[in-house]
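User: Hi! I'm working on a homework problem where we have to compare a predicted structure to a textbook description. Could you give me the structure for the chain below?
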Amino acid sequence: MMFVVVLACLLAAALAEEGSPKCTPSPTTASGSQARAGPYCSGDLIFEDNFNHLDFEKWEHENTLAGGGNWEFQWYTNNRANSYCENGIFYIRPTAVADDTGEGFLSSGTLNIHGGQPADLCTGPFFWGCERAGNPTNIVNPIKSARVRTVESFNFKFGKLEVRAKMPTGDWLWPAVWLLPKRQVYGSWPASGEIDLVESRGNLDYRVNGVHIGVEQVGSTLHFGPNPNQNGYDTTLSYKNSGPGQGFNTGFHLYQLEWTPDHITFSVDNQVLRRIDAGTGFWSRGGFVTTSPASENPWMHASVMAPFDQEFYIIMNLAVGGTNGFFPDVPPATNGNRGKPYSNNSPAAARDFWNGRNIWQPTWQMNVNRGKESSLQVDYVRVWAL
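Assistant: Happy to help. Predicted C-alpha cells:
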C-alpha cells in the first residue's frame, strides 16, 4: 500500500512539473529599492510603472540648472506644474520661469537651488547647475521642466525595455528617454556609456536638406568613447521618420530596447530600427584606433560589450533648446516661416531664445488643455528579463 501511495505522489509531482512553465535562466541583473530580487527567468517582468499616480519611490526628480551639458535653457525642478500624472498618463510639461518670478527677474535675479532639505538638494552642480545670476546678456534659465530617474530605485543590465509615449509639440522642445550607468566603471562620460532609447524635436516643420527632423522623426543611439571629444555615437545613430502629417506627436508609440550580452537593438512599434552588434568590441566600432591613437582603451580588460556590460538606470526628461547642434541653425535648416530665434554660436543664446518667444510660444499651445500637447506624455515603462 505504501508503495502505491509513493508512486502516486511521484506521478503527481511529475505531471505538475510537466504542466508548469519551465524557467530559462536569464543573464539580466537588477538592483535598487524597487528591483525584484533575482535571479530571473527569461520573460520575467522586473519593473513596471503604469502611472496611476506619481510614484516617488520609483522616480527621483533632478534639480539642476546645468542644461544637460548642452547649454539647454530649462531648469529641471520638482513641481506639479511640470510633472504630474492624470488618467494613467505621466506628463512632463514646460512652463515659463517669468510666470512665477516676473520678467525682470530673468536679467537681474539669482536662482540659488542648493537646497536645505534632502529632497530639495541640487542634483547637478556642473555647468553652474546650482546657482546662476541673471544679467542683460546672460539671463537665468527661462523655462522650467522636469527630468526624472530611477538611479536609486531600479538599475538593470541586459533585458527588454519598452516605453509607450507620445512626443510633444512645440518649437525647440527636446524630449528624451534614455539610460545612464549606475556607476562610472570605465570613467567619466562617455567612457562608461549612454543609451538613448528615443529623442525627438517638437518643431512642426523643421527640415535639413528637405528631410523632416522635427515631430516626424525620432532617433536612437549609443554614446561611448575615451573622452568627450572622441564619441562613437555616430556609428550607432539611427532615425525613423513617419509619414507626412503622421508625426510622433499625434499619438502614442512603442519605443523598445533589446539589450543582450552581444548586441543592442532599437525598435519602434515592434519594427527594428537598428541592431548594433558588439563584434570585437566598441573600441573597434568607434574607430578609436585611428581617431584617438594616443588614448588608452578604457574597456581593454572588460567584455566585448563594454561599456554596455554594467547596470544602467532610466531617465525621462523634456529639455528646451541648447547650443550643442541638436537644433541646427536656420539657415541652413528651415523651420517653416518661423526661423530660429538664436544661434548655436551666440554667447547670449538663452536671451535670444526668450526674446523670440512671440514666434515659438504659440506653437506650445500652453493655453489649450493645460498645455498637454507641449508635454512629453508617457503611458507606461516596463522592463523584462532577457
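For your comparison, note the following. Helices lie at 2-19, 98-101, 105-108, 282-285, 288-291, 349-355, 357-364. The chain has seven helices and 25 strands. Good luck with the assignment!
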